[in-house]
Amino acid sequence: MHEALPESISADHSMNQSPAGIESGRRVYADLLKAQNEAHKRVYVLSSHSHYLMENIFNTAFWRTHGGVLPGWIIGTAGAVRYKLPDEHAGATIAETNVYGFLLATVKPDGEIAFQFQQVNESDVPKKDAKRSAQGFVHWCFDQNSQAK
């Protein structure tokens, strides 16, 4: 999904932005909890709207007291301006800003999916590709493209 479901650690930049978003998002979350807990399905909730990296985004007081915590990631690290992390993000097991990269998903034989962040550094950009962009643009992206400085 794009925006995180409501009541995540990233609530200030998620489906919490409107009453309709909160209502429909909570309904979806409840359906996913039911699929996990009653139908014994593996559930993983991925979003990208917030431009940082965070794992365990639903480990909030709200979800701990309203049914349970689903595994969830925000992976908004593909090149957009990077955001400051939410002030309260202690429930996250990973919380980073000012990084670029992607989430690698590995499906295990039992069907469980393991996720691992693969960081992309400026030195990973091939020189020929960096030269094709505007002068200094690749360096600027890694060095300056942030609201979290």
Care to describe what's here?
With 149 residues, the protein is of the alpha+beta class. The chain is globular, with a radius of gyration of 17 Å. The two termini are 27 Å apart.
How do the strands and helices of this protein lay out in sequence?
Elements: H1 19-37, E1 45-47, E2 53-55, H2 61-65, E3 72-75, E4 94-96, E5 100-107, E6 113-120, H3 127-132, H4 137-144
Parallel strand pairs: 1-3
Antiparallel strand pairs: 2-3, 2-4, 5-6
| Amino- and carboxy-terminal Cα gap | 27 Å
Proportion of beta-strand residues:
15-25%
What is the H-and-E element order? Answer: HEEHEEEEHH
Largest sheet: 4 strands, mixed
Q: How many domains make up the 3D coordinates?
A: 1
The overall pLDDT, averaged over residues, is 94
Helix content: 25-40%
Question: Cα-atom Rg, whole angstroms?
Answer: 17 Å
Quaternary form: single chain
- The unreliable regions are none
Shape: globular
The largest beta-sheet arranges its strands as 1-3-2-4
Structural class: alpha+beta
In short:
26% of the residues lie in helices and 19% in strands. The protein is an alpha+beta fold and 149 residues long.
Give structural attributes.
alpha+beta, single chain, two-stranded antiparallel sheet, 149 residues, 4 helices
